[in-house]
Predict the 3D structure of the following.
Amino acid sequence: MDWSRYWRSPDRPLEAMHAHFERHAYHRHSHETYSFGVTEDGYQAFRCRGGAHTSAAGMVIAFNPDDPHDGRPADALGFTYRIVHIGPELVAGVLADIGGRPAGLPLFDAPVVGDPVLARSLRALHGALLGCAPALRRDELLTAAVGAMVNRAASGRLRVGPSSGAAARARRRLEDRYLDDIGADELAEAAGCSRFALYRAFRRAYGMAPSDYQRQLRLRAARVRLARGEPIGEVAAATGFADQSHLTRWFVRCYAMTPGRFRAACGD
C-alpha cells in the first residue's frame, strides 16, 4: 500500500518527504533543488544521467539541481525512503557559513552513494524536519548534513550554464514564454538550427525533450501559486494546463501527491 508524508518550510527552499511506494512510478522530471534521499527498505530503481541505478536499504541518493530522473519500485514489495530537497541558494549559504567565505555549488557525479555516515546524517535531518524539531536543531542538522554530503560525496563544482548554444537559446525562449503554445519550428528558429538538431542538443544538454522541459516549468509555476493558497482550478488555467484534472495527473506523476495535498501542506 502506498503512503507518504510531506513537509515544506514556509520561508526557505527546504522540503522533505517520507514515503513507501509499491505501485507509484515517478514520471521523468527534475527539481530546481538538490535532492538527497535515503532508502530505508526495499529497492528503488531509477534512471538518471543516461544510466540505470538501484538504491537498496541504507544507500544515499544524490541529485543535482535540474537532474532529470524517474523512479519506481524494483520489485513487488516496493520501497520506503526519505528525501530532502534543498535549494541551491540555501546550500551555498550553508557552505559559506562552514568555510567562512563564498563557495561554489557542489557537483554530485554518482546518483547513488553507499555511505552509512551520510545515511545517518540525512536521516537525522529528515527526522527533525518532519518531527517539528526546534529551529535551532533543524539548522544544526542541516549544516551537518550539507557539510557531510559535500565532504564525502561531491566530486567537483556545478557548472553554471548549458553546454550547447542552440539548447541554451531554446531554453531561454521556453522560460520566457512557457505558457505559450510554442511550435517546433518557432523554437528551432529561436535556437538557430533545425528541429532535429535542436531536439538532440536539448536532450543532450538537459536530459529531456523541450516539451517535457516546458511542462516542468509549468509545474514549477503551479507549485508557487499553490503554495500561496490559490484555487487549484485557477492555478491550472494560469499555468497552461487544460483543466484541473490535467494538472492533477501530472502533479501526481512528478511529485507523488495531489495539488490539493501540496497546497494544504504549504498552509500548515
The mean pLDDT is 94. The radius of gyration is 19 Å. The first helix runs from residue 88 to 99.
